[in-house]
Write a structure and sequence with these properties.
Blueprint lengths: L2 H8 L3 E4 L4 E3 L5 E9 L5 H7 L7 E5 L7 E3 L1 H9 L4 E8 L2 H5 L5 E6 L11 E2 L3 E3 L2 E3 L4 E5 L2 E5 L6
Parallel strand pairs: 3-4, 4-6, 5-6, 6-7
Antiparallel strand pairs: 1-12, 2-7, 3-8, 3-11, 9-10, 11-12
């Protein structure tokens, strides 16, 4: 279901995340239960979480809004795709954007950077994160399409 239709039907039950996301990948819309990672300029924890079965969940990554280095590149995007994640939203940057844009994935991010991140494993997974005026809680639901990103506490019938 389109995010515009969800707003029309469930306006009081959805929250709109407002950053101007760059949208990459051949999948133009995605939805599912939320999983979270909070990491800053270090993607080792994110990679480890994406190596787990996605089960059609949406990975929400709070990268602190950093555009200095990328938290996702083409190799980790393949892990996202191969492990059954519905999509990923990154409050930060990605690299290998041309390759990612040709993949059967859905990636929302703030921007691109050719610089790779550190690999020390700093961060937290499975915690509530906040950005774009929205609180993302694990197991809440995310709905994304070319019009934007919505979050609800419960699954919305479409």
């Amino acid at each position: 279901m389109k995010t515009a239709d969800l707003v029309d039907a469930y306006d009081d039950a959805v929250r709109f995340c407002d950053p101007p996301f760059v949208k990459l990948g051949r999948k133009k819309s995605f939805s599912g239960p939320i999983a979270t990672v909070k990491c800053f300029e270090d993607n080792a924890l994110l990679k480890a979480e994406l190596e787990k079965p996605g089960n059609s969940r949406v990975m929400i990554v709070d990268g602190g809004g950093s555009t200095r280095c990328a938290l996702l590149g083409d190799k980790i995007a393949l892990i996202l795709r191969d492990n059954g994640w519905a999509g990923i939203v990154i409050n930060g940057s990605v690299r290998d954007s041309a390759e990612i844009d040709q993949m059967d994935v859905a990636v929302f991010c703030l921007g691109v950077s050719p610089k790779k991140s550190s690999k020390e494993g700093a961060g937290q997974a499975g915690r509530t994160v906040r950005f774009g005026g929205v609180e993302f809680r694990p197991n809440a639901f995310a709905y994304a399409d070319p019009d934007g990103l919505l979050v609800s506490d419960a699954h919305l019938a479409g």
